[in-house]
Specification:
This protein is mostly helical. It is built from three helices and two strands, in the order H-H-E-E-H. Strand 1 (about 60) and strand 2 form a beta hairpin. Helix 2 crosses helix 3.
Length: about 110
């Protein structure tokens, strides 16, 4: 079997299309979460800790070298939101599959 025919078989199964759709939706979701964290969550936190831009918080180790802990904390918050959302989606899908198993089809 040639590589072209293997690729056609792979694509025709739907896995590649579903994966592509998932990647596109995931990228769009990432942008939404970035905006929520950067534009809604972090500004009030920065205001409360001294009217600073949170992502600009850093520890200077020298004249040029810094540890950007503010940016790192923002990334952790983004990761937590995305991980929790994925957890909820998987939980919902598992519940739907469980309900399908309980229904007796003719």
């Amino acid at each position: 079997m040639g590589i072209i025919s293997e690729f056609k078989t792979f694509v025709s199964r739907g896995n590649a299309v579903e994966l592509a759709i998932g990647v596109v939706i995931g990228a769009a979701f990432q942008k939404v979460v970035d905006s929520i964290v950067n534009d809604i969550i972090m500004p009030p936190i920065g205001y409360l800790i001294g009217k600073v831009e949170f992502r600009d918080l850093k520890l200077h180790l020298g004249e040029v070298v810094t540890i950007n802990y503010g940016s790192f904390i923002q990334t952790l918050i983004q990761f937590t939101i995305i991980a929790f959302t994925i957890f909820l989606v998987v939980k919902l899908l598992n519940r739907m599959r469980k309900n399908e198993d309980l229904v007796d089809l003719p």
